[in-house]
């Protein structure tokens, strides 16, 4: 019987959805950066050169933050595997990863963030019964 099965499952699902959120952010930021300099966009939206450069910079930053979020999603999967060894340590790391993802990619991280925060709180608050 695995006493930390619920924490394992929540953290694993958070990691998988975090990877999906990171890939989605990379794709969105890449598209934003790629289309920021196009003639059609600047003519249709009446963007100035400064606006176009700002869009390119925002797209680049989105890609960077999404790559970091992708790494955090992979780390959550590793935390899920190791959560039975030291529940307090990996509970704190899971909480930090959940909150950090919100700061990195915002609403893309809502599902993995909530799941990671719940799993982290469960790791810290739940006492596992010992069988003798």
From TrEMBL:
A Pfam family it matches: DUF4064
Domain DUF4064: 4-103
Record field: transmembrane: 12-35, 55-82, 89-122
Keywords: Membrane, Transmembrane, Transmembrane helix
InterPro entries: DUF4064
Lineage, top ranks: Bacteria, Bacillati, Bacillota, Bacilli, Bacillales
Protein name: DUF4064 domain-containing protein
């Amino acid at each position: 019987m695995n006493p930390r099965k619920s924490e394992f499952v929540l953290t694993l699902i958070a990691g998988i959805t975090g990877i999906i959120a990171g890939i989605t952010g990379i794709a969105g930021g890449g598209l934003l950066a790629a289309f920021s300099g196009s003639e059609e966009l600047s003519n249709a939206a009446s963007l100035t050169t400064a606006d176009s450069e700002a869009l390119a910079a925002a797209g680049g930053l989105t890609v960077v933050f999404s790559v970091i979020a992708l790494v955090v999603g992979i780390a959550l999967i590793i935390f899920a595997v190791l959560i039975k060894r030291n529940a307090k340590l990996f509970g704190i790391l899971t909480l930090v990863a959940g909150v950090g993802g919100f700061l990195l990619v915002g609403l893309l991280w809502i599902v993995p963030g909530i799941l990671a925060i719940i799993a982290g709180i469960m790791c810290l608050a739940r006492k596992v019964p010992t069988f003798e």
